[in-house]
Specification:
Length: about 350
Amino acid sequence: MLLASAPVTATLTLPGFVNAHTHTFQRGLRGRAGGGDFWAWREGMLAEAERQTQELVRSEYEHAYREMRAAGYTAVGEFHYLGARDALSALEAAEAAGVELVLLHVAYARGGLERFRQESVAAYLGEVEALRAAGARVGVAPHSVRACPADWLEEIGRYAAAEGLPLHVHADEQLREIEECKAEHGCRPIELLARTGCLGPRTTVVHATHADGAELDLLAEAGALVCACPTTEADLADGFVPAEALAHRGIAVCIGSDSNVRIDPLEELRKLEGIARRQTGQRGVFSTATLLSFGSGEGARSLGLESWPDVEVDLSHPSLRGVAAEDVLDALVAGCGGDVFLPPG
């Protein structure tokens, strides 16, 4: 008697999605974000950061990275400010989970927790050098203009340019941050980044939700990217990424899961296009091809990656049932979730 062969699942291969900005420990905060504003949420985030250990990072990051991999993210930029001691645990977790990791090691001069901070910019760069010597793919990441004074930004900008490393930084996420920057430096955050040599084609500004036109012009002139994290920006009341203005200036965008209240690259892209539609009153502000590029190639460029794993779309998934072949990519972005991707291997 002949045995029936197993059904063959029709698939579509795409470049893997790139999560260009995550604070993976914040996954533990989901469900505890109700009430207050960003600054109230931040107090709970600091408490969560304080309780992290090397063992917790190693185990919980692996779980979260596996969630990311299952949702279609095959490469991750970990914006790591828990301290150099825990960085190797994050690297081990990513290797175990099968994702390509770029460790965006954070410079923190002031504020936050003691474990975040380095005693000098030289000490920070020493940590970066040690991670590179250990074989880690690394980018530099001054946390923000709140956490890094101008002299630190200048030194980090020089180092990144000389070494050809990615430079990631939070900027213009909150109005209070902008007012504090103007009071200290007489300019807005992205203007300060330009003044201190931190803007260039390897720079990614995270959020930019309150960037004004002059700041966006600086990003366009520098060839810098913006990392949009729409699910987190909505959850933390950060505001809307200026999608229409980014499109008008041709500024490249990548995406991140950030606080990881949700892990789904298609949802990030869908929210980004939704913001643009509501800002313009027009549909299709970003084409499907552009959105997919934001989710993959631009994220890889942001992290300095030349290669990263592909993903397989399950064309038999219920969310794609009845969709014509020529409409699959549009339907993928418009109406699918991360569960449309087949498990690796």
